[in-house]
UniProtKB/TrEMBL annotation:
Protein name according to UniProt: GNAT family N-acetyltransferase
UniProt keyword Metal-binding present: no
A molecular function (GO) term: acyltransferase activity, transferring groups other than amino-acyl groups
PANTHER family xref list: N-ACETYLTRANSFERASE, UPF0039 PROTEIN C11D3.02C
Protein's organism: Dorea formicigenerans
This protein's UniProt keywords: Acyltransferase, Transferase
Gene3D superfamilies from the UniProt entry: 3.40.630.30
One Pfam family linked to the record: Acetyltransf_4
Residue span(s) of domain N-acetyltransferase: 10-178
Domain of life: Bacteria
Amino acid sequence: MSTSTLKKDIVIRVAALDDAEELLEIYAPYVRETAITFEYEVPSLEEFRERIAHTLEKYPYLVAEHDGKIVGYAYVSPFKERAAYAWAVETSIYVDQNCKRMGVGKKLHSALEHCLKEMGILNMEACIGYPQEDDEYLTKNSAQFHEHLGYRMVGEFKKCGYKFQRWYNMVWMEKIIGIHEEIQTFPKKFDADMLKD
């Protein structure tokens, strides 16, 4: 599959609970084979479906489809639960490992950012596993991807994640996508129509 063909034919839509099995198939190798996620055990299908449902109560959960097959997904969660953090979210993007470097992640992020702006979200935060030196489980690619999308590095925590008998750092990166006003209206809940605008 060529990069140009994939980019042209990607459709972004809101995730459905019935997508859980396909999404879990994308996520599972990240758990088992990488330190991109610090999760140790692949969640059950039921738990994964519940995660999707919980996110969609308030936030966007988007999938990228190519020829009817899901090739990636993106969603957000609260940056922190306290009310004063309502304008900030933590982003997550996962791409089928056979479709990396083909523009899927960028297209998902663009759609996600559009939805968040429609909601009134102002800060996109990314929590990223970060190796001291690239290895077979984790590289700095994710941080470089976010930097390319306009994120800036805001902090690094040393050796706070332990997986595959190795210690990994974690970084926070941030992208400001709105204007911070003195009087700020609370963000709206996500609605599927926000994706269409």
